[in-house]
Amino acid sequence: MTQVSKESLLKKIEELESRLEDSEQLVNAIQKGEVDAFAVNIDNRSEVYTLQSGDYAYRVLIEEFGEGAINVTEEGMIVYTNPYFCELLNSTYDQVIGTSLLNFVDADSHGKFKELFKNSFYKKSKGEINLNVNNSIIPVYISLTSLRPNIATVGVIISDLSEKKRNEEVIQDYQDDLERKNVELSKNNKELASFAYVASHDLQEPLRKIQTFASRLIDKEQGNISETGIDYFARIQSAARRMQDLIQDLLAYSRTDTQKGNFELVDLTAILEDVKLELLEELEQRQAIFEFNTPCKVQIIPFQFRQLMYNLISNSIKFSRSDRAPHIVITSKLTTELDFGTTKKSGAKKYCQITVVDNGIGFEQQYHERIFELFQRLHGKSEYTGTGIGLAIVKKIVENHNGYITASSGQNKGATFNIYIPENRHDI
Predict the structure, then answer these.
(1) What angle do CA 294, 300, 304 make, to 5 degrees?
(2) Spatial separation of the C-alpha atoms in residues 93 and 90, rounded to whole Å
(3) Angle 18-19-24 from CA coordinates, rounded to 5°
(4) Phi, psi at 374, each rounded to 5°
(5) Which residues pair with 176 in a beta bridge?
(6) Verdict on whether the full-model pTM lies above 0.70
(7) Is 288 helix (H, G, I), strand (E, B) or coil?
(8) Segments of 134-217 assigned E as strands
(9) Residue 313 near residue 328, CB atoms below 8 Å
(10) Cβ atoms within 10 A of the Cβ of 423, count?
(11) Angle at Cα 27 formed by Cα 23 and Cα 30, nearest 5°?
(12) Whose CA is closest to 239, among 276, 277, 211, 273?
C-alpha cells in the first residue's frame, strides 16, 4: 500500500515538473514576443489567454495591418486585437480586450452580425454592418473565419467603409444634380426649338414685308421721293437682308445637332462633288480652281458634313484676294497623329485628317481660335459680307463627330484648316 502511494506521488511530481517546464518555456516565449498573452477577469477569477504565433513576421504584419484584425471566442469575447481596431473604436487596448464584440455593434445590425458570426463556424462569411461607438455610427465590412481546429476562436477582419460611404453620397448628390440639369437642359432644348420656329416664321415674315414695301415704294413712288429718301430705303433693304441672313444662320447653328441625323460610312468625294455643284455659279464667277483628293471613307452625319464643307469652301471663295483667282485644295488621309500647331498628340486611334488649303487673304495667326466663335468677324461688313456664324457652325459639326479642327494662316498667305474625324464610329 505504502509502495503504491510512493509511485503515485513520484508520478505526480513528474507531471508537475513537466508542467513547470512547459510554463517556463511559455514565459520565455512571451518575453521573446513569440506568444501574445493577456489576463481576463471572469467571475472574479483571472484567466490567462495566449495566442501562439509560429511566424513572428506574420504577427508583426497583423499588428501593422491597415485594417482591423481581431480574434474572438466562440461566445464573441475579444481575446486579441491589433492597434488599428482600437483606433477605429477610439478606445484603448484595455477597453477592447475581454469585451464582447457585440457591445460595439449598432443595435440595428445585431441580427445581421449574429447571423454572420454563426455562419462563420461552418464557412467563411462576410458582409456589411454598422458599429456604434459613443453614439457615432461607423459603417464597416467584416470577414469572419473560424480558426478551428487549431484554435477555438473566430478571426475577424474589419474594414472601415466611412470614406467609401461618403464618396457614394457625393456621387449620389452629383448624379441627382446631373439629373436636375438634364431636366433643365431638356426644357431649354424645347425652348430653343420654340425659338427656332418663331425665328423661322414669325421673325422672318415682318422682314419680308419690310423688304417688299420698301421695294414697292422705290418702284412706284420714285418720282415723289428725293435722292436722300431713295438712299434711306436702300439702306433699309440692306439692313433687312442682313437681318434675314443672321436669322437663317442662327437657325442653321441651332439645328446642328447629332440627334437629328444618323452616322453613315460615306465617301468624302461624293459629298464634295455635291458641294461643288451647289457652289458652281460662285466658282465660275470668280474663276476659282477647286481640287480635291479624298480617298478616306469615314462614318459621319452626311447632311451635317455637307454643311461643314459648304461653309469652308464658300468661306475660301468669299475671302479670296482681288489680284488672283481663288485656288482651293482639299485632301484627306488616315493618321494617328493630331497636329495642334504648338503641340502634337498621337495614339492608337485612327483619324481621317481632312485638310482644306486656299490662297486667300488669310488672317493673323493670333486669331486662330477666335475665328470659330459666334459673331466673330475680322473684317468690316463693308469689305466682306456675312454674319460671323459660318465657322462656328463648322466647329460645332466637328465636335458633334467627336473630332478636332485647327486653323493656321498669315496675312495674305492663305488659310489652312485641318479636321480630324475618328475613323471608327465606336470612337465617337
Answers:
(1) 100
(2) 10
(3) 100
(4) -60, 140
(5) none
(6) no
(7) coil
(8) 136-146, 153-160
(9) yes
(10) 18
(11) 135
(12) 211
* Range 184-194 burial, b when 16+ CB lie within 10 A, else e: eeeeeeeeeee
Task: Write out the three cell numbers for 146.
Answer: 473560424
Residues 6+ apart with CB under 8 A from 224: none
Backbone conformation region of residue 364, classed left if phi is above 0, alpha if psi is from -120 to 50, else beta: beta
Close Cβ partners of 297 (under 8 Å, ≥ 6 residues apart): 265, 266, 267, 268
| Residue located via cell numbers 458634313 | 305
Per-residue pLDDT of the chain (428 residues; tens, 9 = 90+): 445 576 777 777 777 666 666 566 555 655 555 555 555 555 555 455 555 544 455 566 677 777 888 889 988 899 888 888 998 888 888 888 989 999 999 999 999 999 999 998 888 899 999 999 888 899 999 999 988 887 788 889 998 888 888 888 888 888 888 888 888 887 777 776 666 666 666 677 777 888 888 888 878 877 788 888 888 888 888 777 777 776 776 676 666 654 456 888 888 999 999 889 888 888 999 899 999 998 888 888 888 888 889 889 988 888 888 888 999 999 999 998 888 767 778 777 889 999 999 998 877 776 667 777 754 544 444 444 545 677 888 888 888 888 998 988 877 788 889 999 998 765 55
Q: Which residues pair with 105 in a beta bridge?
A: 131
Name the helix (H) or strand (E) containing 57: helix 56-64
* Amino acid code (one letter) for 257: D
Q: Which residue has the cell 454572420?
A: 116
* Nearest Cα to Cα of residue 125 among 136, 133, 117: 117
C-alpha cell at 355: 485638310
Q: Provide φ and ψ at 35, rounded to 5°.
A: -140, 135
Please give the grid coordinates belonging to residue 153. 476562436
